[in-house]
Amino acid sequence: MTGKASDTPHWLFGDQLGSHFVDPARGGPHRDSPLLMIESRSVFRRRRFHRAKAHLILSAMRHRAAELGDRVRYVKADTYRQGLREAVGDTEVTVHHPTSHAAHAFVSALPSVRVLPARGFLVPHDAFRTWADERTTEHLRQEDFYRWVRRTHDLLMEGDRPAGGRWNLDHDNRQPPPRGVTDLGVPAPYRPRESDIDDEVRSDLDRWVRDGDVEFVGDDAPRGFPATRREALAALRRFMEHRLVTFGAHEDAVLSGDATMSHSLLSSSLNLGLLDPAECVERAEARWRSGDVPLNSAEGFVRQIAGWREFVWHLYWYFGTGYRESNALRHHEPLPDWFRELSPDGTEANCLSHAVEQVRATGWTHHIPRLMILGSFALQRGWDPRAVTDWFHRSFVDGYDWVMVPNVVGMSQYADGGRMTTKPYTSGGAYIDRMSDLCRPCRYKPSVRVGEDACPFTAGYWNLLHRHRDRFEHNARMTRAVRGLDRLRDLDALLQQERDRSD
């Protein structure tokens, strides 16, 4: 057990809301320790968050405080420092390792705060650092890390071999959507019912806006994501029992009439600390071993949590505070107003308008619209990666600093020059056409590079390769694509067209 004495208060941040953050058997505070939660208004002043995100965070915090009852002191303050002073003065408090560099620096600088190890992840910081330091190259790859996690946590293993004989089932999990349908026809994901606490949150947000205290982007709508442990478990159970079975094959596909496909929608619950990643991957493995779901679906889900989520979390800390400033491609263009304001009418590209509209309405899209539509467009247009990172952080209900810095700087915008990925994640319109039903009704044609019908993604892809040819032609995974520039008879016209578009 931790905590010097049972009367040492323990501080819970707004993304540390699950029972595993207060379990003494799992590194939490003493079972009798009083708890502290601070609702800081300044958090919402610093950034124009999506309205749905602000609602979810405040609802989750206030629901948790209601569950904890007299054990918790819930303070509404202008800043964390003010709230801490009001609640405990100079009394020592404990807190689990926060999830951002800024928060960690803040609590570490306070002499009255004792920082406990991080919770909510499978791999401890020291274990990852040992693994990373043992690599013989400066590049860290998710596939290597994922295999190590599978072995050390005995996930989807048969002895010392991966279940089914292969570590990577991406080939089975990158199928285009079924033809002639607008949705997958799978049971809908879990949706929570709002409570009186949600009414209170909505009233407070409305008042803050009226008073000119804060501003938001995006729509105010009924809360679409779990705010309590009970709701999160219900969402997990529904996914495991009704949606995991169809998750794998089409996890990279997009359908205009099916925003969620077979995705779990559990990321916000994991990132609020309402779910522990271990219980998620263990349930997925159990469903496969019982014969209820195919291996490719179980492996695809385990890869997202035990692979990518863990990898991103640890890279955020391993690469350090300067990583967010990475800009290897020297992209500095500002985000256009329509993108910043989540206005889908700002573009005639159907796939892009569709993705922006979904973000505006819900604060969420699955990973392919994020990476291969929104992120790819930003990369092709040369937008400032720090501004793109901030946009994703603010606009998504599951977006936190640790989530978005590696995902956007490293994976989406290739701003780190390849420290975490082997190539830029971008494509022409042909990929979007193959993996979605969004191109047929679009005014642009994915096969056209130049002219009034030229797809912005197709033209943008070639323009990006041309701008960075010297860098990309030395990348083994990009050499063939770069050489394709030499076969484009209309390259000069394409480059002029893209210059005109950016003016």
From TrEMBL:
Pfam family, one: DPRP
Domain of life: Bacteria
InterPro entries (UniProt xref): Crypto/Photolyase_FAD-like_sf, PhrB-like, Rossmann-like_a/b/a_fold, UV-DNA_repair_photolyase
Region of interest: Disordered: 166-196
Protein name, as recorded: Cryptochrome/photolyase family protein
Organism, as annotated: Streptomyces microflavus
